[in-house]
Amino acid sequence: MSFSLVLAATFFVFLASSAQAGPNADVDIALTRLSPPCGLEAGQRIEFLIAGRNLDGVRQIKFDFHWAPAGAISSGVGGTATATEEKGFIAPGPPQIWGDIATYGMAVFGGSGLSGEGELALVGFEVASHITPSDPVAIYIDAISLGPSSTERDTIYPQEAAVLANYCDATGQPLANALFLQASHPARLYSSAERATLADSSNGEIDLFAQPLVEPTFRADTEINWQLVNPGPGTLYAHLPERSIAIAPGESSQIQTRSNYLGQAHLRVDAAGGPGDTEARALACADLSGQSLCAEQLLIWQSPITAVISEEAGALPSASHLWANYPNPFNASTVLAFDISASDAGSYTQLAIYNSLGQQIAVPFAGRPAAGTHRVHWDGRHLNGAPSASGLYISRLLTDSGAQSRRLMLLR
After folding, report:
1. Which of 75, 163, 373, 389 has a CB 3.0–4.6 Å from the CB of 139, allowing a cystine?
2. 23 cis-preceded (ω within 30 degrees of 0)
3. Chain-wide mean pLDDT for the chain?
4. Mean pLDDT computed over 89-98
5. Is the pLDDT reported for residue 77 higher than 60?
6. Contact at 8 Å (CB) between 225 and 267?
7. 259 φ, ψ to 5°?
8. How far is CA 260 from CA 86, 244, 263, in A?
């Protein structure tokens, strides 16, 4: 196979792995990105080299991959690298893709196999037709099985084994440090009171995933400090592997978790029913290379009766505030939530959307709102009804108290 970029020199950072006990249980894996980190779009490949060390008589190798976001990859190619080619390894075909996962393997028949250190495989995944340079894509190596035969293989799970593309700033440079926070379902219906206390896949469960990025990959074993704020009226529950934490209306809770070998820190939350919607404000923070970074997400639990209500009654906000939109990134529509304080109530308020050039393209809200929390939808369209292109946008809330802005990422 041919790759679009050839390295003059290759430098590996080997990644620690966990494995079953066996002669290859201590194999370490290194990834080297070959394709550009930024600017990839439809038809181009995310290409990388896989190397290993502490190998012991390896004759068969199988790689397991997955990627995010869903549908980002259309096809794959693969081939042997320096060490496996010298030993006569054969790759019978390209990576086999099923949905958003793929497997790829190679083997050699006879000989002593591969021992010590060496380059194992060259792999490339073509991005799908809808991917633009503004669409971040991550390819993960979930596991590698290798050994002298099909019945004597060890399975290892390399830490921080991700190859990133388009995780870049507005100038087209790779992000050095960043913290991403995603929710599986930013808006859910309530769980019943007895089921909300348990992690049992009930209606209201929302999974939060924080990903600390230290270029060029997501960082494993990093402490994530969560803060969950419950304005009410329902009770909020945070589910950890060893216990569940109840957060009463009007209270907040501090929770610590660590990112796993893929660089993801997970927290599951749920809420019991109340007389109105319950909104949880989730904040995740991490110290990355001496830099403290935070990301936040607004979560909402609704009853069937109030699910379409856009304004909520309850305790009045002490200050006007623009919350992070959800979902973010989005590809169809997104919800923008903002608080109006008593001092700003009845005054002219505008919530507008701007493109990266500072041009106003949409105004989801303009009026004189009452004090409280308000939610509006933006369908990603301009004022003239034309759909907006993928990219970074800015939401701006203007009140008598001043202006506040947030970043939105539209992914078509």
Report:
1. 163
2. no
3. 85
4. 93
5. yes
6. no
7. -70, 145
8. 35, 20, 5
Cβ(277)–Cβ(188) under 8 Å? Answer: no
The structure tokens 């809330």 sit at 397
3-state secondary structure of 380: coil
User: Which residues are registered as beta bridge partners of 376?
Assistant: 336
In angstroms, how far is CA 244 from the centroid of its own chain?
Answer: 24
Q: What would the pLDDT profile of 288-341 be if each residue is shown by its tens digit?
A: 988 899 998 888 887 643 333 333 344 578 889 998 887 788 877 788 888 888
Between 15 and 284, whose confidence is greater? 284
- Look at the alpha carbons of 34, 121, 27, 66 in this order and tell me if their dihedral is positive or negative: positive
Beta bridge partners of 397: 351, 404
| Cα angle 154, 158, 164; round to 5 | 140
What pLDDT is recorded for position 305? 38
How many other CB atoms sit within 10 Å of the CB of residue 242? 5
Cβ(269)–Cβ(236) under 8 Å? yes
Q: What's the rounded mean pLDDT across residues 211-222? A: 93
Q: How far apart are CA 243 and CA 234, in angstroms?
A: 20
Assess contact for 154 and 27: CB atoms under 8 A.
yes
Distance CA 188, CA 186 (A): 7
Compute the chain's Rg from CA coordinates: 24
Tell me the CB-side half-sphere exposure of residue 372, using CA atoms within 13 A.
11
Give the pLDDT band (50/70/90) at residue 8: very low
The CA-atom distances, in angstroms, between 35 and each of 31, 124, 146 are 12, 9, 26
Q: How far is 278 from 275, CA to CA, in rounded Å?
A: 9
Residue whose token pair is 């099923």: 98
